[in-house]
Amino acid sequence: MHILLAEDDTLLGDGLQAGLRQLGFQVDWVRDGAAAARELRVSPPYTAAVLDLGLPVKDGWAVLDDVRRAGVTVPVLILTARDAVPDRIRGLDLGADDYVVKPVDLYELAARLRALVRRAHGQIQPCLRAQDVELDAAARMVRKGGAPVSLSTREFDLLQALMLNPDKVLSREQLEQYLYSWGKEVESNAIEVHIHNLRRKLGGTLIQTVRGVGYMLLRSAP
């Protein structure tokens, strides 16, 4: 999952970025509200955003109002020290999908992000399923026919992107955006290699190539 983190506290931001990366997230970190609004409005869609309210240049309230008025639908989790009920109400009414008060346990934050992303994609079960394949995002495990399948980090992330969007075509560019954060060099055939490996491990009917467009994961076998 590709996450935008907007946090001006250097120590906290560095810890959150490192911790979420260890838990399997790709994290881009900005330190002011203007940068957060710009990234959410003009950059390729993120899977979710973690937004502090006390940001310099443009505060989190203004960022949230700005991106929602612009039609940005990225799930937003407010992470703030402001614990007053009116602040919670304001944040949710402005379009936040969750509101969490600092300090927060890293594992709880990761679980809340996974839940936000599932709901945003119309998925209500904790595990994603397609055909005889099951993906457990919390445990980062994949099973085929009930048997565990060993995947690399990139293979897992790619499969997760496809399983969050079953029966929808995703372009190579969209998949690259899901898998890689800022500054990561992407080989030109990386997605094709990962798709090949997933087909080899999970069977050839799960992921279909839509020539000239991209790839699509089939929820049900053809």
From TrEMBL:
It comes from the Bacteria. Residues 2-117 form the Response regulatory domain. It is found in: Cytoplasm. Pfam families: Response_reg, Trans_reg_C. Its main location: cytoplasm. GO terms for molecular function: phosphorelay response regulator activity; transcription cis-regulatory region binding. Residues 125-219 bind DNA. The modification 4-aspartylphosphate is found at D52. GO terms for biological process: regulation of DNA-templated transcription. Keywords: Cytoplasm, DNA-binding, Phosphoprotein, Transcription, Transcription regulation, Two-component regulatory system. One of its GO terms (cellular component) is protein-DNA complex. Residues 125-219 form the OmpR/PhoB-type domain. PANTHER family: REGULATOR OF RPOS, TRANSCRIPTIONAL REGULATORY PROTEIN QSEB. This is Response regulator.
